[in-house]
Amino acid sequence: MSIHLVHNVYFTLKDPTTANIEGLIAACHKYLPHHEGLVYYSAGTLCDDLRREVNDVGFHVGLSVVFKDRAAHDVYQVSANHKKFIEECKEGWAKVRVFDSNATTGA
Predict the structure, then answer these.
(1) Tally of CB atoms within 10 A around 70
(2) Looking at domain 3-104, which of 3.30.70.100, 3.30.360.10, 3.30.2130.10, 3.40.190.10 is its CATH number?
(3) Percent residues over pLDDT 70 in the chain
(4) CA angle, corner 95, sides to 90 and 7, nearest 5?
(5) What is the pLDDT of residues 62-90, one digit of tens each?
(6) What is the pLDDT confidence band of residue 106, given thresholds at 50, 70 and 90?
(7) Sign of CA dihedral 89, 7, 26, 16
């Protein structure tokens, strides 16, 4: 059984205009999907029409990256592209929440 590392990041923007949201997603697509060891990558907006009691809607952009293993995640964290992404975008963030988990697939 293989264990993947799932890295989910939720960004709340200081100024959540459509242009700023689209700009952050574009920056995600520019810097983040081209890393060794990625199994899955996506970035997009809050699904605003899902408003159940359990839905956390306190973000504007969600990023989901699945790595083949912890080592691939660790390389990603210190990579030049990841650092460029943070440097280019961090001024627009009011809050960033990161949820990392170990994931296995069921039979």
Answers:
(1) 14
(2) 3.30.70.100
(3) 96
(4) 85
(5) 999 999 999 999 999 999 999 999 999 99
(6) low
(7) negative
- 98 contacts 17 by C-beta, under 8 angstroms: no
Contact 10, 59 (CB under 8 A): yes
Cα-Cα end-to-end distance for the chain: 10
Q: Are 42 and 64 a contacting pair, CB within 8 Å?
A: yes
Stretch 99-105: mean pLDDT? 91
**Residues 4, 73: Cα–Cα separation, whole Å:** 9
What predicted TM-score, i.e. pTM, was given to this entire model? 0.92
State residue 48's pLDDT score: 81
SS3 of the chain: CCEEEEEEEEEEECCCCHHHHHHHHHHHHHHCCCCCCEEEEEEEECCCCCCCCCCCCCCCEEEEEEECCHHHHHHHHCCHHHHHHHHHHHHHEEEEEEEEEEEECCC
